[in-house]
């Protein structure tokens, strides 16, 4: 269970205060899959990064599982305790470049004191689960495709047995033909009742996999509800406008996405697959 | 032309007796320079207040004063201020002087190398519950070391040769011995040619090892 209450965050630049999170409250149930959507600069990444304190909120409280922190003035021990509750999948994969794929997945475990042999066995299992072949496990990140790197990073996230996984646009940096393999892995996680918070621009995927969609604009939650409802028939005018614009972007990504089996026609027609899971 | 090849062969073993002194100065100075350089680079990279300004001053000072002046300041100058330092021998003074000087160059090389490591890895490490020192030790510093390897090698090569100015402190290393032998035999050209070739060979051997190391480490960085 994630419980975020009245989260606030501003950045200060030359032009003064930039309020990025303007009182965000959000609950995510255990096993729930929540997709966060919204225009560029609306604060999606900042919200996600506040959940593991990569950004320090100015005010508000965050509870994940049995750890609760209250900003401002979160002590270092609480920062680490909260971070151990989640894992993050980044847009740019952020794999450790001087370590093999296998070592990337082992390291978070050994860093917490797991014996090496046990960490290696778990890492092999996790990498197999995300579809990384035995021979590929010994390769360094530079020699892997973007899709492989992102799947390794998902295995790395699973390695710490997190309470929830935070994914920030996990497929946005991928070549279109590689998006499907990564979405397929995320879909599996969702079906295995992992708690997931996904910032995504893949509306069809969000509608299919997420239980709930949260639309953020200007640092506030404008609308949220069952995924299909929000995406198919948004109540708020701002959501409607955003979805219209999101759809009018070139749709070649979804078209080249066999594993996700996403519609190739614009979302406006029907963003949902006929065999999609119930929202 | 008056050139005595036989003399060159005779003088070589005599010179090589002093190779260990030269190597000791170079290797010991490099060792301390790397430690100090890394420390200063981390201070500058992490922008630790106050220490950062001191680090900037340190780098600017030891890069700005000629090596010979630094060595004289340490060996002849400091004992005047601190009488207990009169017991410092020339070897120690040389190693201290070279360590300080080279550390100021290495600090800048290391800082640039740290900056060029992709910072997303720090966030990735922190997000899985690692501490910042763990991430630095396991990922950031090793990758920075790889980035810094070619430039650091160049520093060592120039240090190997620069140890020859230690003769001015009355220290008998390779070059000082060459001077002694030359003035005894009046065979200046032969003696200095041989000692020059010895330095050259040292640099070639070192470069070969560095090349192998770079190839070995490049596994993780070249596709
Ligand atoms: N470290 C930072 N320093 C200053 N401003 C920042 C920082 N990080 C984010 N911002 C600002 O905060 C606002 C929200 O950024 P954020 O990255 O959360 O948006 P986003 O919704 O994830 O957008 P996108 O869809 O483009 O990823 C932007 O105006 C951005 O410029
Ligand atoms: Mg973002």
TrEMBL record, chain A:
Keyword Transport (UniProt): yes
KW Nucleotidyltransferase (keyword) present: no
Gene Ontology MF annotations: ABC-type amino acid transporter activity; ATP binding; ATP hydrolysis activity
Extent of Basic and acidic residues compositional bias: 234-247
Top-rank lineage group of the source organism: Bacteria
Keywords recorded for this protein, A-Z: ATP-binding, Cell membrane, Membrane, Nucleotide-binding, Transport
Name of this chain's protein: Amino acid ABC transporter ATP-binding protein
Region (Disordered): 234-279
Biased composition (Low complexity): 254-264
Any Gene Ontology CC annotation: plasma membrane
Residues in ABC transporter domain copies: 2-243
PANTHER family the UniProt entry points to: AMINO ACID IMPORT ATP-BINDING PROTEIN (PTHR43166), L-CYSTINE IMPORT ATP-BINDING PROTEIN TCYN (PTHR43166:SF35)
Pfam families, alphabetized: ABC_tran
Record's subcellular location: Cell membrane
Membrane topology qualifier: Peripheral membrane protein
TrEMBL record, chain B:
Membrane topology listed for this record: Multi-pass membrane protein
Any Pfam family matching the protein: BPD_transp_1
Domain of life from the UniProt record: Bacteria
Keyword hit for Coiled coil: no
Gene3D superfamilies: MetI-like
Key words of the record: Amino-acid transport, Cell membrane, Membrane, Transmembrane, Transmembrane helix, Transport
GO cellular component, one term: ATP-binding cassette (ABC) transporter complex
Annotated TM spans: 20-43, 55-75, 188-209
Localization in the cell: Cell membrane
Domain spans labelled ABC transmembrane type-1: 19-210
GO MF entry, a single one: L-cystine transmembrane transporter activity
Predominant localisation class: membrane
Family under the similarity heading: Belongs to the binding-protein-dependent transport system permease family.
Xref: PANTHER family: L-CYSTINE TRANSPORT SYSTEM PERMEASE PROTEIN TCYL, MEMBRANE COMPONENT OF AMINO ACID ABC TRANSPORTER
Name of the protein in its database record: Amino acid permease
Source organism per UniProt: Brachybacterium phenoliresistens
